[in-house]
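Record format v2
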Amino acid sequence: MTALLTLYQPLWGASFDDEGAGSLGGGTMAGIPFDDEWYMLQKSSLARQGAPPQLCLTTLRSIPEDQPIEEAIADHGDALLREGGCAVLALRLYKAGWFLSPELAERSFVIAREGWRIERLPGVFRQTFLSGVLHHPQPGYSLSITDLCTSVGETTPLNVLMERLLRMNRCDDSVLALAADSFTRSYGLISTQDERLAHLFIALEAMLGAFNEKGPMKLDLKGSGALIPGRIRASRLAAGDPAQLAFQMASWIGKQGRHLRNAVAHGEPLLLPEQDLDSAVLKLQLLIRSLLCQYLAYLEGDDEQDPILGFNRLLASMVGDAVNEAQQYEIFNRIGI
Amino acid sequence: MTDLPIEQLIRAQSVIHIPGMVIPPGVSAVLGPGRLERLAFESWRQLDPSFPDEERSYVKSEPVFWVGPGPDPTEDWVKGLQQQSNLLHAALLLGPHQPWLPSPLLSCSYLSYPLKESGNTLIAHLRVIGPLEREMLLYGSEIRVHYSDTDLTRLNQLFSWLESYGNPFELEGTCRAMQVLERTTRPDGTRGFHPGFSTNEFIQAIPAAECLLLPEGTGKNKTDGLGQQAAVLTALFNEPSIPGPASLKTLAAEWREIYRMRSHLLHGLTSLEALDADNLGRLALARSLLVWIVFATLALDLCMRTDSSSLSTILAEAFNDAEAFRRLTQRTSEVP
């Protein structure tokens, strides 16, 4: 006989459009807990303040039926936390929207047998939303049941992304680790916009090299993909943007984006209206989201020593003068979701 | 501004939680016009009755509060409490402790004041609750910084010295550095996938220092300019005697390396994992540089200047001229 050790991660700030639950991939599900389950999860004096049940990620492992929770956490806790971290990153890479990082709110290990055994990992902002007032710094995340797998044999793009993240040990690829870490930091609760921008530009330049270089590690790229805007255009085309929109995004990064990046990098004040800064953060998150997803896809088929160089070569070739439609289609297949 | 009579307001008392601070049991240390204390649960419950059953957690978390006279009764109270919190945080940020504590503004501050109602005098409480709510106050966190009696004495000296200049968060010449020092102690900026290390503080602090030390139009090579000025500040606040030119040049070379490391980290050319032990140790120096800039700006009485060219000029002179360095040492000798 076995029992289940479950890692619960409430996603404060996210919404969900269904009463059921679905699978993200691995052993992780997403759904809104039942009232009783939520009450047990939040059962402390904090719960009396009455926030309704929130969308939760639950990551499961089978354990021997009589295994004490401390021992189960010692055996499986790290693996569950790693998978839970992948699930959070997968959601953020999949689409735009803000929720509070669960490690800043609260994560809990639970064994539900003959009453609940629970070990809490509280974060410093655990109480922030308990009053039920959800003030978040960016538009909230909306997860739909259609994003999740709900029947055997079904696979959604989010499942593919999650499975890629689970297969990829992020720390083995320093570019992916730095870019994903910096991207995640842009989702802070009380961070200022220049902090978010600083992290996002780090992620961008980790993936594409510095603005004044022709590719990362001084990779000498030629043609319109030589500089960052060209490769951004390629990335947006591969993400499905129409040509005009991809061009606009490339122009933005080459002018306003670069200006912002220089101001942030040299500590100059960002003399822009608040809504322009908000918009810049969202644009950069969008760009990095697609770049990271595409790089993850590229890594699946890659056996190069320096995959980030190969990835940049591929992006540059996509907007090169000599590329034809068939070659472009092949590239879409290689790095598309 | 409040409507209450002045004679009631002047008896108001501020109680400000210092998140993450740990002091020895039984200690009540002087800090400016108030004291740092570990309030008993019952005393806190009277200020804030929202968690009446959490005495065990409260006792375990050992929260420390600054208890002192309320803010200027003629000003807005909430603003006054925030200014008091900021000044306390300034002393904590400029002190020698690591990790630096998050702002008291993120946690809980209270103002108690007497209120006459139907002929009776009651004590009323104003609560200013930040985004951490009562989490760090009641349950603590991994941020726990122990202050010994000696640390507390030094903190009080620093607080008194700062108070004589005004609140460095509000002075033109120091506010930018203080804002970066404050921001980089926020819990959501320091947490990531690599607990224990963070580039956040470094990548925020070096650009701010660059902006303060190398104003636009100085025409210097940024790496050399920052290296020289940072070398003077390092020697000024760390060397027991006036350094010779060779010593300053060595320090300047060290800072040039740090500046290059900043470029590599900021432009994604290297990651934390790729840094060796020496470079990891250098990350904390960026923050120290901002602290020394604040000390120098205050001590040299440049805090009302909107431009930073004066500090830049003084430091550049001191790098090239031992006599100028000696004069600088004299002018900054009162920094605690």
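Confidence is low (pLDDT under 50) at residues 191-196 of chain B.
The radius of gyration of chain B is 22 Å.
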